[in-house]
Design a protein that fits this description.
Layout: E1 26-29, E2 37-41, E3 46-50, E4 53-56, E5 62-67, E6 73-80, H1 94-101, H2 113-120, E7 124-130, E8 133-141, H3 145-157, H4 165-184, H5 191-199, H6 214-219, H7 222-232, E9 238-244, H8 248-259, E10 282-288, E11 295-301, H9 308-321, H10 327-335, E12 343-348, E13 353-360, H11 367-384, H12 388-405, H13 409-423, H14 428-437, H15 441-452, E14 458-464, E15 476-477, E16 526-529, E17 535-540, E18 546-554, H16 567-575, H17 584-593, E19 597-602, E20 606-614, H18 618-630, H19 636-653, H20 657-670, H21 684-688, H22 692-702, E21 708-714, H23 718-724, E22 751-756, E23 762-773, H24 779-785, H25 787-790, H26 796-804, E24 808-814, E25 821-831, H27 835-847, H28 849-852, H29 855-868, H30 876-889, H31 895-905, H32 908-918, E26 925-930, H33 932-935, E27 948-950
Parallel strand pairs: 5-9, 10-14, 10-15, 17-21, 22-26, 22-27
Antiparallel strand pairs: 1-4, 2-3, 4-5, 6-8, 6-9, 7-8, 11-13, 11-14, 12-13, 16-17, 18-20, 18-21, 19-20, 23-25, 23-26, 24-25
């Protein structure tokens, strides 16, 4: 993973993210270390803490321990205080590049163990880099805790001797693929580079992006890697957090054994704040190869994190853009009708900060108009400010967010580690919420005037390359260098065993054994029903005083009128825009005052009303939910605005290669007459044809309690959950049947399709076929059989295309669950000049999957699936998803236990039969979305004939 953002907890709703015996001294400990989280909430403010014990090893490593025995799992997070701000000009992107290098072998852990072993133990793992730091994190069933200690300690203390030139070259290619996927091959991908280069002077630690410049990545040497490790990767520069089902005394002994012998080194000196200023606006533009809509971003220099001004700037960003009462929304969306959804945010970091206003405009809108609109909105804010109710809403939402930010064990581990490294104490969570609550009206208006209003900014215009006339007047060309992808230009690499002298240690550092496997326990599920036909299914969980719920109504896009795909989506959006008794602004304020989230959405199979809230506010939120559901406002102006926004989204997606591939592949598999064959939300033609009368007719026909199920998870008994939902009992209606979807068949032989995206830096590849509905009793067997093909980075697609070849950032195969025939999909985004080679790998791995699937594959898959279930019910969202699967697919309450029984009893013969019957490569189609000029002709060599050329909507380019 590239980017993790450390910031105010509630500001990002904890975005942490597009891992010899020592004398120890306890730095801080709460009185009840065996508890999970303690909290006390009143009506005015939140007080929240996470119990932990913190101490320091002799070598300088800070260790934070937190006990939570609610699930039989353990999370570990290692925060290393080195980000891109520690890099040198000419070696940018190195902190992130080193994160990639750190997931390879170390002196006592074999190559591939980081990426393969943890998933195969039933865990998850990843890492992240941001401007100020790097983090490595894992979650495993507790029987694998010792193995985590072994892997993580060896990475921190014993990895540098194993680095070789082949691994270096492979990771260079992987990181460059990540850069292409995240930056070069997507709309507005170069925005971060343009803004940073303009905002921060040459030599400033934030002058470059986290992923760095391509030429710097290519120039990295083994000596650079060793220098970086020796300078920054030492215990005194890191915090280790262990959270979960642990024993404090035993864990201290284990930490001392595994981490205590690592040499200490010298901690990196603290960086002093380096805020910047601008004398005047800098206006820059870029003609974007992938953008279909113009975008304007204003970026102002501000101040570093955890300062008083940082908290006020965060509140300012929310007040300017969050919600229908926000001045940017009212001005740019409602009054001037220039854009669908402007945004503003504060981005404060360790040594400096910035504040951004971002507006993706409607098609063909000149950015001069957008710029003038922003200035008009800021003038309005300067004159009229905001209401007390708006500020109260923000603080209520932050109160609720704090609970969800520590919901999972990993969330708590990440939070404790980041607070320790960047705020000075793991317990800063209490001060953080106090600082947020202390922000006043005067603070917000002061920072607005000091940093934003009439202040100079970086003003960046990104427009479709064929529409330079939309660029903001007075702008200069931005310094963007587009990579040229040339066949054969990437060096070949070979990873060979490295000869080195192993570092002597007192303790044995060989691989530890697993301890006792935790027993799978599933939550108790309860069922209720209402007199009007609404079914209620729930789980009572009292770990946190919150409730998550969803009310799903069968139908969705499945019941859209013919030729009007997108009707359900527009109806769902319109139900969010006020009620018969409340304007959109009043409804939003009412929800916000509860600190809640509540919204209605549509997918292909259902309409869903979903929400989350403190348990004490659940009855009040259900009153609002019933009002939204039963008393639509049907405002013509809101309908036209939403319709325009949908058309804008469709236009935007025309520049996104991954979205094009997804839509076209579905169209190829399902055709025009199947619900899955149409893009979710409709096409330009279908949406343009929808009227408000169509939306009302859909509502009257489809929205029935006989189609509905309420799912509730959280701190409520069944009686409390149903009683509080009493307003929903007023709802009346008749049952509606879902028409059968046409059966789709496989092809007789493979066919290759190609969609041209000129100058694409990567090719998006999809391979697949239709299989069974997810409700079919044999569906899980297919899903399980796929595990070793593409179920994760430890599977064959990822190991071959990324780890062995360096062609991609990731490659997977999966089966998205649905009531209709779901597709088997294998997909990746690969470097353009290895498109054919990647297709050949897909062909070989899928085609030869059955004969090469061995007993060891089955054993590994069994272990992964069975042990992963120990983490399956940790969060309220995971429990809610389980309930939704039960009701949507007609599964039994104990379906997970049934699946586990299948896994335990499956034989090699069984899996071979499933692969042969359902994953036959000769029944699959291939789709490539990429640069036709350089790749189309080569693909003939795949052996499946001349590729069929399609446009971005899936229609033949040269129809017969």
């Amino acid at each position: 993973m590239l980017k993790i953002k450390t910031t105010l907890l509630a500001m990002s709703i904890m975005t942490v993210l597009g891992c010899s015996d020592s004398t120890v001294t306890t730095q801080q400990s709460t009185t009840a270390p065996e508890a999970a989280a303690t909290q006390a909430v009143d009506n005015e403010s939140a007080s929240l803490s996470v119990d932990y014990e913190s101490y320091e090893l002799d070598n300088g490593l800070t260790v934070v321990l937190h006990v939570d025995k609610s699930d039989p799992i353990v999370a570990m997070a290692t925060v290393v205080h080195v980000g891109s701000n520690r890099e040198k000009p000419g070696r940018t992107g190195f902190a992130h590049f080193f994160e990639h290098m750190s997931f390879n072998d170390s002196e006592n852990v074999p190559k591939g163990a980081n990426r393969k072993m943890i998933p195969e133990l039933g865990g998850t793992r990843n890492g992240g880099t941001w401007s100020d730091g790097t983090i490595y994190y894992e979650v495993v069933p507790k029987d694998a805790f010792d193995k985590l200690l072994w892997i993580d300690s060896d990475r921190l203390g014993y990895m540098i001797n194993t680095v070789d030139q082949g691994t270096l070259e492979r990771e260079k290619q992987v990181v460059k693929n990540e850069k292409r996927q995240r930056v070069d091959n997507r709309p507005y991908g170069h925005m971060g580079h343009v803004v940073r280069k303009a905002l921060y002077p040459t030599g400033h630690p934030y002058n470059w992006t986290v992923i760095g410049d391509l030429e710097d990545l290519q120039a990295a040497t083994l000596d650079d890697v060793r220098e970086f490790y020796n300078q920054f990767y030492m215990p005194a520069n890191a915090t280790l957090v262990i959270a979960g089902d642990i024993d404090i005394a035993q864990t201290k002994e284990k930490v001392a054994k595994w981490f205590g012998e690592i040499k200490s080194g010298e901690p990196s000196p603290a960086l002093e704040p380096q805020p910047v200023s601008l004398e005047a606006d800098k206006k820059l533009y870029h003609l974007d190869n992938f953008a279909k809509l113009p975008l304007l971003r204003l970026t102002y220099p501000t101040i570093e994190q955890y300062t008083d001004d940082a908290y006020a700037l965060d509140a300012l960003g929310r007040l300017l853009s969050d919600g229908k009462n926000a001045v940017l929304y009212k001005t740019l969306v409602e009054e001037l009708k220039l854009a669908p959804r402007p945004s503003a945010w504060s981005d404060t970091n360790e040594i400096a900060g910035s504040f951004a206003i971002n507006v993706q405009a409607n098609a063909d809108v000149p950015l001069d108009k957008v710029y003038a609109g922003i200035q008009q909105a800021l003038d309005d804010f300067a004159e009229n400010g905001f209401t007390d109710a708006q500020l109260q809403r923000i603080k209520a939402e932050q109160e609720t967010a704090f609970y969800y930010n520590i919901e999972s064990i990993l969330d708590k581990a990440l939070q404790l580690g980041i607070y320790n490294e960047y705020a000075g104490s793991p317990g800063f969570i209490e001060q953080d919420i106090a600082n947020i609550q202390a922000v006043t009206r005067e603070d917000i208006m002061r920072v607005f005037t000091q940093y934003v209003y009439n202040q100079p900014a970086i003003v960046a215009s990104f427009v479709p390359k064929e529409q330079p006339d939309l660029v903001l007047t007075g702008s200069n060309k931005a310094p963007v260098e587009e990579e040229e992808i040339v066949a054969g230009s990437e060096p070949e690499f070979e990873e060979k065993p490295v000869e080195y002298t192993k570092t002597p240690t007192e303790h044995d550092r060989s691989e530890p054994a697993l301890t006792e496997l935790p027993t799978l326990t599933t939550p108790d599920i309860w069922h209720q029903s209402m007199d009007n036909g609404v079914k209620v299914i729930g789980i009572t969980s009292n770990e946190l005083p919150v409730v998550n719920f969803s009310l799903t109504i069968d139908g969705g896009q499945w019941l859209d009128p013919k030729g009007k795909a997108g009707t359900a989506s527009l109806m769902a959006q319109l139900l969010n825009e006020g009620t018969a008794n409340k304007t959109p602004q009043e409804l939003e304020q009412a929800i916000g005052q509860l600190g809640a989230q509540l919204s209605i959405s549509a997918d292909r199979e259902s309409i869903e009303l979903s929400g989350r809230v403190l348990a004490k506010h659940y009855p009040a939120l259900m009153d609002l939910a019933a009002e939204m559901l039963l008393s639509p406002r049907w405002d013509e102006n809101e309908f036209e605005r939403l319709k325009s926004a949908s058309l804008t989204r469709i236009k935007r997606d025309e520049g996104n290669a991954a979205r094009i591939a997804s839509n076209v592949f579905a169209h190829l598999l399902y055709g025009d007459n199947h619900v899955a064959g149409q893009p979710m939300g409709g096409t330009q033609a279908s949406v343009e044809s929808i009227t408000l009368a169509d939306v009302k007719a859909y509502y009257e026909k489809v929205m029935s309690p006989m189609q509905a199920t309420l799912h509730v998870v959280g701190a409520l008994s069944p009686e409390e959950a149903v009683t509080a939902a009493a307003p929903v009992k007023q709802w009346q209606g008749e049952a509606v049947s879902l028409p059968a979807q046409p059966e789709v068949s496989t092809v007789d032989k493979p066919v290759v399709y190609f969609v041209d995206v000129p100058d694409a830096k990567q090719s998006v590849i999809y391979v697949g076929k239709p299989v069974l509905p997810a409700s079919d009793r044999d569906f899980f067997a297919i899903d399980f059989a796929n595990e070793r093909l593409g179920g994760g980075m430890s599977a064959r697609l990822g190991q071959t295309l990324r780890i062995q070849k360096g062609y991609t950032y990731g490659a997977y195969s999966y089966l998205p669950a649905a009531q209709y025939q779901v597709p088997f999909i294998a997909a990746s985004q690969v470097r353009t000049n290895v498109t054919l080679e990647s297709l050949q790998i897909f062909k070989s791995l899928i085609g030869q999957y059955q004969p090469t699937y061995l007993e060891e594959d089955l054993a590994t898959a069994k272990n992964m699936v069975i042990k992963a279930n120990s983490r399956r019910f940790e969060t309220l969202d995971s429990q809610l998803n389980m309930l939704e699967e039960i009701s949507r697919l007609g599964l039994e309450d104990n379906y997970i236990a049934t699946q586990q029984e299948f896994v335990q009893n499956a034989s090699l013969k069984d899996i071979h039969h499933v692969i042969k019957q359902h994953l036959n490569e000769q029944q699959m189609i291939y789709l490539v979305v990429g640069d036709a000029e350089t790749q189309l002709e080569r693909i003939k060599e795949l052996g499946y004939g001349v590729p069929v050329e399609l446009d971005i909507h899936g229609e033949p380019v040269n129809p017969i």
